[in-house]
Amino acid sequence: MTPRILITGATGFIGSRVAAAARATPGVRLRLMTHRSALDVPADGTGHETVHGDLADPGSLRGSCEGVDAVIHCASLIGSDEQTARVVNDHGTRALVDEAVRSGVGRIVQLSTASVYGRGPFTGLLPGMAEPAPASTTSLTRVAAEQHVLAAGGAVLRPHIVHGPGDRWAIPGLVALLRYLAAAPAGCDARHSLIDVETLGRTLLGAALAAKPPSGVYHVNHPEPVTCSDLLSTVLGELRLPWAGTEIGLDEARRRLAGVPYATHHFEMLTLDHWFADERVGQEFGCAPGPDFRTSFAAHAPWYREFLSR
User: Fold this and answer.
1) Which residues are registered as beta bridge partners of 276?
2) Mean pLDDT rounded to a whole number for the chain
């Protein structure tokens, strides 16, 4: 049987990687949903098709799941406007899930985020060990979206820090913090879970193609967490920032960030464990964990240097 998979958010940072992984998998037929952006889909006769769908307009989703075996839901709105985020993330996901159920789709896989847990520390946290405590509009509405998927028997995948070409938030945000510090804080042993975007794309596809339909919440990250000090020193070194090799203590870092609440908040988050564990991912989805952070980030560094130079 040739599986047909619908991917929402197929032009996005992560959704585009899921689509690329699916194109590289023999026998998979794709239906790619886009809201605004044009899709660069090769006209190679392999059965790739596109469909327009707007999560803010439930009527536009009608028929989108007909003949589909699995839905990989990567589309979401990130922003501080709660009303719009609620319409897209919460109500839009509910409409998509309803359409999938109506169409008899056997698997629903949603991309979410570990940020739904709120502020740490989280040390080796397994699914089910803590309830979501969202601290932002985006996380609040994505938790609501998760409930629709889980109620339909689907799977929710929660990565923590996702890095790689196309990332305009995670690593660039760390670089902005490092500019304030003009150094790498030393002696910070807080551990963080990370995953590169290509590995995440393959994992989402693996969930949709797994021998047994997955359900419930999964933590999707590289199995080895990275300490705060190693994370920041790697970014400094690989991006050839002028402060590479310069270290300061945590108290000095806090002094330099005094008066900059946004940077202080993110620094304090970095000093707490955000390590999310889950051994089932490789076992159930058949996906290798990918290279460790230092190796994968070295490969991604040229893209980041070019992006940040703009």
Assistant:
1) 125
2) 93
pLDDT in tens, 154-165: 999 999 999 999
Residue 71's closest CA among 247, 254, 204?
Answer: 204
Other CB atoms within 10 A of residue 134 CB: 17
The residues, ordered by sequence, that sit 6+ positions from 31 with a Cβ below 8 Å of its Cβ are: 4, 5, 6, 7, 49, 50, 51, 64, 68
Residue carrying structure tokens 């989108």? 64
Query: pTM for the whole thing?
Result: 0.94
CA distances from 263 to 24, 102, 176, 180, 296 (A): 40, 46, 8, 8, 26
Q: Which residues, listed in sequence order, are joined to residue 163 by a DSSP beta bridge?
A: 196
Q: How far is CA 188 from CA 169, 229, 232, 270, in A?
A: 22, 5, 10, 9
Q: Cα Rg for the chain, rounded, in angstroms?
A: 20
Domains present along the chain, CATH in parentheses? 4-163+194-223+276-289 (3.40.50.720)
Backbone angles phi, psi at 219, to 5 degrees: -95, 125
Q: Output the pLDDT for position 45.
A: 46
User: Running DSSP on this structure, what letter comes out for residue 196?
Assistant: E
Cα–Cα distance measured from residue 81 to residue 9, given in angstroms and rounded to the nearest whole number: 20
Is the Cβ–Cβ distance between 225 and 195 less than 8 Å?
A: no
Q: Where are the beta strands (DSSP E) in the chain?
A: 4-8, 29-34, 49-52, 70-73, 107-111, 122-125, 155-158, 161-163, 184-185, 191-192, 194-196, 216-219, 226-227, 247-248, 274-276
User: What are the residues whose beta carbons fall under 8 Å from the beta carbon of 307, sequence distance 6 or more?
Assistant: 168, 172
